[in-house]
Hints:
Two copies of one chain form a homodimer.
Chain A: H1 12-22, E1 31-32, H2 35-41, E2 44-49, H3 59-69, H4 72-76, E3 79-82, H5 86-98, E4 102-107, H6 112-120, E5 124-128, H7 132-146, E6 149-150, H8 157-173, E7 179-183, H9 188-200, E8 205-211, H10 216-223, H11 248-254, E9 257-261, H12 263-277, H13 283-293, H14 295-298, E10 308-313, H15 320-328
Amino acid sequence: MEVNKEKYAADLSSIKEARARISSFIHKTPLMTSESLDAISGRRLFFKCECFQKGGAFKFRGACNAIFSLDDQQAAKGVVTHSSGNHAAALALAAKLRGITSYIVIPKNAPQCKVQHVVRYGGQVIWSETTIKSREETATTVQQETGAALIHPYNDGRIISGQGTISLELLEQAPHIDTIIVPISGGGLISGVALAAKSINPAIRVLAAEPKGANDAAQSKAAGRIVTLPETNTVADGLRAFLGEFTWPIVRDLVDDVITVDNTEIIKAMRLCYEILKVAVEPSGAIGLAAVLSDSFRTNPAWKDCNQIGIILSGGNVDLEVLWNSFSK
Amino acid sequence: MEVNKEKYAADLSSIKEARARISSFIHKTPLMTSESLDAISGRRLFFKCECFQKGGAFKFRGACNAIFSLDDQQAAKGVVTHSSGNHAAALALAAKLRGITSYIVIPKNAPQCKVQHVVRYGGQVIWSETTIKSREETATTVQQETGAALIHPYNDGRIISGQGTISLELLEQAPHIDTIIVPISGGGLISGVALAAKSINPAIRVLAAEPKGANDAAQSKAAGRIVTLPETNTVADGLRAFLGEFTWPIVRDLVDDVITVDNTEIIKAMRLCYEILKVAVEPSGAIGLAAVLSDSFRTNPAWKDCNQIGIILSGGNVDLEVLWNSFSK
């Protein structure tokens, strides 16, 4: 699948512009390899460690690009988002770097460690009820009262462009990779990664890794339209969002397949990341490795020739208590 | 303290030779920074992530140098060591790379994960009783029966030279650092690091980080001679060895001070490594950060000007169960 002429919300140019805009603020994350994990998987694996990104996840790239894209007048009014996850902390940190206010709407049931990150980075926490409706309404109220710019976690060209900078780095660090496996949730990460990677190397394969209990992307690809789910059920708390209008066309056209894995596979992969790679990942961050190790990937003849595989370890923000409880099950 | 003319068991030349010998086998480990940890410590910190080294610890550098220093005739008879720790796995892995046999004498009470590493890397495990005497006698028996070369974990110039390659990398990655903080146990790591670093930059300070419950190096420095302890008591299972005849003169002359920390400080630092750096370290690996955060370091006027500090995260091999038990206390 190649990048066609259709106008997406981002493209290689906007991704290169993003890189120029954010490169002095972000970490260029290391690419790690492990002969032990190569032996276990039967492939050569290259781990792009976005868990080492500032804020503990790739989200800082997009947040940084969005915030430094604002003109001074807009920026002076601050930014707002509703998120219980890594985007919230990333936006707070990027706003702090620009010296502007960030209003972060967080549902009351959000994990403690993610709230702490927002507070540590100077974000103004505004609590909402746990429903999506309450979160959106609270954000809209803040936006109306303050004039702050809403920065959506993924359904935004600036965010997609920022996340796409990962591919630019990855293909410089390992130009020979033939496949990239990317966690999928709302699709901001994989949209940016696929756009950049396939523009540079149309032959490269981009595969999504998705939890079985939140498999809206797999269902959407199968149906040829955005499918949302009445509920989700997965240990990967960062992968519960659904595709949006800007990410769907990119996922539809450029993502070669969606590999779904269950909680057991995710936790096993997370444990391998700790014990062999020595990298602290959150469940969502380990799902790419889970996909490579899954039977559905290993036995699929279509992926038999995927030998040099980039895996994006997307984030590392996890309460150690929660981690332990998943390992103990 | 500068490198004087006395002949130590290693020097900058032997360390550079080691680098040439092992560079195609080892990982050049990344140097990581964290603004959050800089803010907490009040210094600029550069983490040399040897937990990402093959075998999960810096030990692979020395083991590799020792094994590839052997002539073919010696090598054909294999190598032997007695160790329950990271040196054992490192030696097994290096022997595997050279295609020779490694005999690893392991006491019956060794941590399960460390035994697994030895087995995974193809080492031949030979069980001994838990006393040092039994371990040494068993190793001697193996040596006599097989003709294998004994490779001591630290009291060996080849090992010291191999560990010293860390400084060559570190000072290329961050030439401006003014201080290096290094875990100390038998002294192989800090001897190599200090020899290389002070040969390149005589003004650089090298500080040892040592558990309060195994503070033989601090006591040795104070007494001006090797002091051993009747027993040790620390969560840092990799830091229970005592200085040897080859490491002591280097530690005596080139290590500027020994900072001791207790279990609580080590566990707190380990937790920060997981939660902020996203790096899975073992207790021994986190002790350099514990030292930087300790009151005895912060309030000592001698270290007031240590502003750009390299910290060696020496290893990451820990049973997750053990880890959790320490966090829960």
